[in-house]
Structure formats: C-alpha cells, structure tokens
Amino acid sequence: MLNLYPIHVPKAADVLADNLREQILDGRLRVGAIFPNERDLAEQAGLSRASVREALRILEVEGLIATRTGRNGGSEVIRPSLQTIERSIGIFIRGQNIRLASVLEVREAIEPYAARLAALHRTDDDLEVLRECHRRLMTDLHDVAAFLRANLEWHVNLVHSAHNELLSAFVNAFAQTVYQATDLQEFSPPDIRATVARAHQVVMDAIEAGDADAAWRRMARHVGAYVGRVKSLGPDAMG
Questions:
Q1: Helix, strand, coil abundance in the chain, percent, nearest 5
Q2: What is the CB neighbour count within 10 angstroms for residue 77?
Q3: Per-residue DSSP letter, 34
Q4: Assuming Cys at both sites, which of 6, 33, 162, 220 could form a disulfide with 112, CB separation 3.0 to 4.6 Å?
Q5: Which domains occur in the chain, in start order?
Q6: For 140-181, how does the pLDDT look when each residue is reduced to its tens digit (9 = 90+)?
Q7: How many whole angstroms separate alpha carbon 175 and alpha carbon 152?
Q8: pTM for the complete prediction?
Q9: Could you report the per-residue pLDDT of 80-117, keeping only the tens digit for each?
C-alpha cells in the first residue's frame, strides 16, 4: 500500500545560507574574507540573484557577515558579536511572552555562579566599576527609578566581572526585562532598597577577597530574596 508523507523542500536561499554559514563556522571562510558580488555568487550557485540576496540577508541578521551597498559594496565575513546573541534572546523573550517567573529562575541559576567566577577572575578595574555602581545606588536610595537603574548596572557588571562571554550575553539580554517589570514604587520601598544595598556590599566583599564560595552563597541569598519579593506581590507580578 502506498505510504506518503509531506515532503519539505527547503528554499534555495536557505540552502545557500546553510552552505555559506557552515564554511564560515568551520573556518574555510575566515573573518575578513570578501564574498564575490551577487551576480558571481548567483552564477556559481546556479541560483537567482534574489535567492542570493536573501541568503546574504539571513547571514547578516545572524551577525556572520557585514554587507555594504554601492559601487564598492560587498559582503565581508565578520566575527559574531555579543549583541547578536543578546538581540536574539531578547526577541525570543518578548516574542514568546516569556513569564517573568521564568526569567527570574534563569537569574537564580546564573548569577550566584557568576559571582563565584567573579571572585576568581575579577580585575581591579572590575571592582572599581562595581564600586561605582554601588556608590550611585547608595546615592539614589530615595529615587526609585535611579535606584533601579543603578541596581541593574551593578548586576550586569558583576556578571561581566566573571569574564565569561556567554554568561554576559544571557544576562544582558534579559536584564532590561527584569528592570521594566520591577519599575514600581511598591516593589522597592525604602527598607527593601536599604537591604539590597547591604546585600551588594557583602557580595562585593567576598569578590574582593577572592572567596568564591562566600560570593556564591551571598549572591544566591540575595537573588533568592529578590525572587521571593516578586512572588509576594502575587501571580500578576510573575507574568
């Protein structure tokens, strides 16, 4: 008995993008390599210029090539930036309407370990950036909006101090989501803001001392208290 199932035939542009992407990622096309123009690419691939143009656009969105227009234009292989993954994660969070609860669970998983790595790998410059964020946070204890901005910067820069590019990209991508969700007077009353400031200080003390275990414990306690605060506001706050 005949048994058929739907057959998916990929678009020509997707096939070409897959081929070029693999050559870039495996190193056959190195950073700085210049692609032939659209007409030559179309002739080599046996595709229309429209398909070639679409394939190049896919790679450009992925951050693998930069395309210039005009007489001296063309496409050049580049190194993907942190902004590429940040943009993709940010779009996913917003496009999928990811609940704040899910974002906070990721924070609980990432930030304590980032604090541990920061205690092991931070530089003096990293410490100074954290101290400056903390000074602004202390100055703005009575200004909720300014306090939340300083708080966000402190957390982002602490993760940067871990010197792990993927952790930094993840945190940068969802940090703004957390900031927007908690930009509320009732979320950060004066006593909570003072508690946050103290928690930041003890985490920084552990990082400065190079005590990885203490940094992990203190950040886990701090982020856990934050999540508990959000939950205390009820299901609407968790999205």
A1: 70, 5, 25
A2: 18
A3: B
A4: 220
A5: 12-77 (1.10.10.10), 83-238 (1.20.120.530)
A6: 778 888 888 888 899 999 999 999 988 988 888 888 777 666
A7: 7
A8: 0.76
A9: 887 887 788 888 888 888 888 888 888 889 999 999 99
